[in-house]
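I would love for you to help me understand the pair of lines that follows before we discuss the fold together.
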Amino acid sequence: MKTRDAVLLYEDVQADTATEILDIDLADPISAFYIEVRSTNGATSNKGNFISDIVTKIEVVDGSEVLASINFMHLEVLHFLKTGKMPVMFPSEWASGIQRHGAMLLFGHYLWDPTLCLVPTSYKNPQLKVTFNKAAIRAAGATGFAAGDNILLTVVAKVIEEGASPLGFLMQKQIESFTSATSGDKRIELPTDYPYSMLLCRFYVSGSDIDAVITDLKLTCDTDKFIPFNRKVKQLDAEALAAFGWGEAYHNIFSSNGLTSRLLWNKEPRCALVTATTLPRAISISAQTAGQATIGYYDLATPTAIAVDENIAGRVAGHALHATLPVIFGIYGKPGDYFPAPNYGKIELVLTQAVAATCEIVLEQKR
């Protein structure tokens, strides 16, 4: 196999709210796009506000036809699940700190998959679109991302110049986004056009585990004629942990005693933190669960609790990245095992709701 990297953009400056549109004018099959985004925090801090939040949509389109449509959180989760490795993730809350995240939009089961890749020449006007909203969490400024055009976008196409035998590609799309209720079932009709390889379910609200937000998940075909699964979310999450394992990333936190910090992982987060000052400090974690940690932070010289936020550095591990649950259909990497959605007239995902939260459903299909 003969491969090459085509750098489409390198640290191209983006406005606070903008959509970068790139024509995909390559002739050879594309295995993946590597997409990296950097930005700088404000002069005071940027608490609980990640690069993952401000890249609100990544699309591959051909005119009005959508070939992929997800946000950066979905991209990072898919990268982790499909490669078994963490994406580039350096979240920081520090004053003027630089945040840098990067992940691959993979069109196959793995990088350089010769049979599943995007063939640009199959389409009239294929384009990659990346949409930003720097104020998605809070306004740009001293306590958010810094004001001004300082989002830097890098895009690299991973091209198979020789050796590919394309039979299609894996297409990822967000199917639904909604706020869950505190009780009752939510029914979502899924497409039946292509086989399913993977389903991603993101259930996020600060301080709640994903299995507390949505307790049960059911897939039903043709009004319960066939039910592929009807499961407790906590058990599906346990199976996902067994299949994909834990993740870990460096995380720079800005905190004083008793404050709660947002983490990347929803389930069983574990923090290993050290002070970033030369002063005598002691750090403890009084609670670390449901995507957040409460920090005990003390001055050993006095001794007293630290009342003014300071820089803290460390590593944070856990699972259920971005409060997301994956469901795999068949043996991943064997398309013949994928769920044959076209065989059914109607397919619904039924979610049993328990807590109000942001819920997003992403479907990966073999097209």
Observations:
- The domain at 2-162 is CATH 2.70.9.20 (Adenovirus Type 2 Hexon; domain 4).
- The chain has a mean pLDDT of 96.
- The chain has three domains: 2-162, 171-243+326-366, 247-321.
